[in-house]
Amino acid sequence: MALHISLGQSTRDRTVVHALDPRLKVVATIGYMASCLFVCDLPTALTATAALGLAAAAARTPLRRLGRQARNLAVFLVVTSLINLIATQAGPVVLEAGPLQIHHDGIRLAALYVVRFLLLLLGGSLLLQTTTPLSITDALGRLLSPLARLGVPVDHAMVVLSVALQFVPTLSRDAETIVKAQKARGAQLEKAGLLGYARACIPLVVPLFSGALRHAESLGCAMDARCYTGSGRTHLHVMRLDPQKDGTACALCLLYAAAFLIALLIL
């Protein structure tokens, strides 16, 4: 049982994408993920795929690394495609087996939703692999700072988000340790089948949950000992947009938006 989780595990490469302002990367990623929801045909899918490929190449992120993330999301993508495949009752009937009918539009929508969610999730994964969790939370805090004037506890929300992102690799390592311990005791996790695998994973929940509570308690005690409340945070690094690097990235993002709109409205 291999656990490949990129959340909270950014790479340390020195590329142009890594050096961009985190605020720009967060806004660009949100915009890209929103555009993926409007992928409706081959031109828009190719445009979004080309943008993701160019960004991954600029970040020197191997395709096999992004492929591992797609493998982790395979169950979600399969369930989504099956729901659309069975629920859509429009177009010519392609396959009929008793009460079950698969229509042409169902196949098209199933493939379309797989492409949409795959590009969307891989775009988010690329952000997490090129930006540290602390930089992401700082960028979100700066972007949402105007809401603090309306009484929204932005600082506290960013502390919670930062702790959550930092805890993911820790819990992943704890899960791997528990799985290895269960295998050492004779647990069959790899060849047990789907139901057997789910039944074998039940004993993993209790120690994993207990470990999460233990980590949370230790963190809470450390924060109390330092009189940390989460408000009035200061920042070691001041975020400034670089006219050359960030300006070029902004121009490329606008170029992608224009190309996607052309593919969506004209082609």
TrEMBL record:
Chief localisation class: membrane
Question: Which Pfam family, any one, appears in the UniProt record?
Answer: CbiQ
For membrane topology, the record states: Multi-pass membrane protein
**Ribosomal protein: is it a keyword of this entry?**
no
Q: By what name is this protein known? A: Energy-coupling factor transporter transmembrane component T
The stretch of residues making up the signal peptide is none
Q: Which InterPro entries match?
A: ABC/ECF_trnsptr_transmembrane (IPR003339)
Q: Where are the transmembrane segments?
A: 30-58, 70-87, 107-128, 249-266
Localisation: Membrane
Keywords attached to this entry: Membrane, Transmembrane, Transmembrane helix
